[in-house]
Here is the input.
Amino acid sequence: MAAATRLSVRNIHKSFGAHEVLRGISLDAHDGDVISLLGASGSGKSTFLRCINLLETADQGEIVVDGERIEMTVRNGRNMPVSRKQIDRIRAELGMVFQSFNLWSHMTILDNAIEGPVHVLKRPRAECIAEAEALLEKVGIAEKRHAYPAHLSGGQQQRAAIARALAMKPKVMLFDEPTSALDPELVGEVLRVMRSLAEEGMTMLVVTHEMSFARNVSNRVIFMRSGEIDSDGAPEELFGKGGSPAFRQFIGTFGS
Amino acid sequence: MDFPFLFQTMKTLLAALPMTLALFSLSVLFGGLLALLIVWMRVGGNPVLSRFARGYIFIFRGSPLLIQMFLVFYGLGQFGFIRHSFVWPALREPFVCAVLSLALCTAGYTAEIFRFGLRAVQPREIEAARAIGMSGFLLVRRIIAPIAFRHALPAYSTEIVMMVKSTALASLVTVWEVTGVAQRLIAQTYRTMEVFLCAAIIYLVLNFLILQAMALIEHRLSPHRRAAVSLVPGGLPVSR
Ligand SMILES: Nc1ncnc2c1ncn2[C@@H]1O[C@H](COP(=O)(O)OP(=O)(O)OP(=O)(O)O)[C@@H](O)[C@H]1O
Ligand SMILES: [Mg+2]
Here is the structure.
């Protein structure tokens, strides 16, 4: 019995002006999949992730989140979502973790974590606080819950951002280079949190340059090149003999 | 020094303080609300509204408040459609005219102050809010406005203090607030120095209190910009 499809993306195209950044990307993520997205700078990884939760609007293509298809229409020659409401609902089901954390600077860590559940999902505050505290405990920053983002290290901020995303109980987590802005000694603490999420069966799409994560944690690796999927397969396969020459060359630059 | 006279003067002037406070608070309130509308027009993306807001801001910041007040007080009655409309009984009142022109003027300044506050909101914080499903008014209320207001607060404090002082102009359209009453006292007693000194002291104390209150609000709203040490009750920050 195949696991349920949490995310299904079909034939996404996206251009910025004349520059075609995504040229027909498709992928399915099943329950519990941990997919690493690799690729050189400028290959369109971030753009792809941002198209999934409509922070960018794809010019063409279909996105289905946990069985719900995002309705698109063409208005004034541009592809657009039909319903603002549906987009907000879909976004609430997709957790996004940014390279630069993007915590809300005027709120404590705990307030960051309960903001979505309380004000977007409109759930009872006390319940949200209890859950958020458990999440902060889980990512190892419970004692920082009353501190403000500016007073935390990058690694702590990123773990807080992960907790904030998890507090929405997302169906799929999207990570855009979550460790790239961190000092090397702080990368491990964030990767450990991501690894334990993966082990709990969270469906994850991770743009990363951490080859160890791609190799050892994810169950599937996708290598993007100039807006297309170049290679796609299990890490053993791609890092073994299966990768394309371009992929070999790419991982060569990481010294692995 | 004639202390009994000073005391008597103080008493008379303080009796006019409620009028000064009423002018001040109503014009700050309505001016603030109007400023929100103008800043929304200014940055909302509609080119016509944006042009209108720019023009508004230019006119009310670029011309003397006193002239604006005279135009409202003496000018509005020139228009038949205003004189015959239901608002005329109100607009005939000097107090209403004074509040109106003070509010119109401060709205121009406040709109610019709020706009600079808005510019300080980081796009990535807005993006993070969108990413959890916030949009529209909720996004403004929970993320954009609180951050923008915190940034705007120091400049806004200055504007509020200016407004306290600007209420003095209302005396020239026959509103009996502190300065107006001071001038009447001088006309009766010819003791310019003492009376104006008393009036100045009232404004100074008032502004002192307002600045203290604003500083307190600012302090309350910006723990995230202070050193971490003061955050943890009992002293040192907990580190891992
Ligand atoms: N908003 C935008 N406007 C114009 N061009 C953009 C925009 N966003 C991205 N691009 C361009 O699209 C291309 C792909 O960018 P993207 O950020 O998706 O790459 P990436 O694979 O995430 O790279 P990196 O590893 O550096 O993060 C780049 O050439 C970039 O300059
Ligand atoms: Mg990127």
